Amino acid sequence: MSTIQIFHNPRCSKSRQTLSLLEQQGIDAQVIEYLKSPPTAAELKSILGKLNMSARELLRKGEADYKELNLSDQTLSEDDLIAAMIAHPKLIERPIVIHADKAKLGRPPEAVLDIL
User: Fold this and answer.
1) Which is catalytic among the residues 5, 12, 33, 107?
2) Which of 19, 79, 83, 89 could connect to 38 by a Cys-Cys bridge, CB 3.0–4.6 Å?
3) What is the pTM of this model?
4) Kindly report the CA angle at 14 between 20 and 1, in degrees rounded to 5?
5) 12: annotated active-site residue
6) Per-residue pLDDT of the chain (116 residues; tens, 9 = 90+)
């Protein structure tokens, strides 16, 4: 069985619930605290591909950085948005669970069960 990873923020209730759900399923996931260790641009592009999402879809639009960096600007490219998420990882929606070539956003936490 391949490693299951969770991009986790321990301060986020949905992230904690998703990690707890994985543990209840007997899964010892590799926990990546992405605020401390943000993904690289290549890793984030890979995650987006596994999620089948665009960078814009993965942005946390309620964050102050979103407004301050004017990330609602529709002329920004996918690479521009990825660069912003790498520089300001709290802009990345969470939690993200990755299993092999699939990933799922844990909103709601039960959504990740689809890829296990």
Assistant:
1) 12
2) 89
3) 0.94
4) 45
5) yes
6) 579 999 999 999 999 999 999 999 999 999 999 999 999 999 999 999 999 999 999 999 999 999 999 999 999 999 999 999 999 999 999 999 999 999 999 999 999 999 99
